[in-house]
Structures are given as structure tokens and as C-alpha cells.
Write a structure and sequence with these properties.
Elements lengths: L5 E4 L2 E8 L1 H7 L3 E4 L4 E5 L4 H19 L6 H21 L1 H10 L3
Parallel strand pairs: 2-4
Antiparallel strand pairs: 1-2, 3-4
Helix pairs in contact: 2-3
């Protein structure tokens, strides 16, 4: 299975770059997004489930900026983390929901 290399969100096209595990460790990240540059960087050594978790987490940060959340950074991080884990749990426990979403959102 190929990992995604870009994502569309509103007017944005977010490029996903997969960085070496060594660089990710040096920077003390699993993933990070630069909303001004529309670039997300993810440790390429992560498995698919963890990569998906990171993508959703970083997209919540993009959503926070897009919808102008006026919250302290620690509250934004807490929301991004807990919402991501909840969404990933929901999707992993309900494969028919994933299928329904995929089919319902086709244009």
C-alpha cells in the first residue's frame, strides 16, 4: 500500500514528505506540518496505522488554523491528539463505516 504524497483541503494542496527516521528523531517528531508552506513531514519508518494517525493529527492543526480556533497551543495540541485517537479508534472498529464514507464522499 502506498502512502499518500499530498492532500487537498479547501484551497490548499498539502505536500507530504517522508523523512528519515534519523532526522525525525533528531527533530524529536513523528510528524509536523508547516501551514504556511503547506508541507507535512512524516517519519517514513512508521507503519501505516501510525502514519494515518499522524496525517489526521496534523490535518487537525490545519483545520484549527483554517477555522481560526482562538485557543492556546497546548489546548489545540490536546484536542488534535484526542480527536485523532478517537477518529482512528472509530474507523478501525467500524470497517463498514470506512466503506460508507469512501462511497458517500465520491464526487
Amino acid at each position: 500500500m502506498r502512502k499518500p504524497t499530498n492532500l487537498k483541503f479547501g484551497h490548499r494542496l498539502i505536500k507530504i514528505k517522508y523523512i528519515s527516521h534519523e532526522l525525525a528523531q533528531k527533530r524529536k517528531i513523528m510528524a509536523e506540518v508547516d501551514p504556511d508552506a503547506n508541507v507535512m513531514e512524516i517519519d517514513k519508518s512508521l507503519d501505516h496505522a501510525t502514519t494515518l494517525n499522524c496525517i489526521i493529527h496534523e490535518m487537525f492543526h490545519i483545520i484549527a488554523g483554517h477555522y481560526s480556533w482562538e485557543v492556546p497551543a497546548n489546548i489545540e495540541e490536546l484536542f488534535c491528539e484526542t480527536a485523532t485517537n478517537g477518529v482512528c479508534d472509530l474507523l478501525s472498529q467500524n470497517p463498514k463505516l470506512v466503506e460508507y464514507l469512501a462511497n458517500s464522499l465520491k464526487k
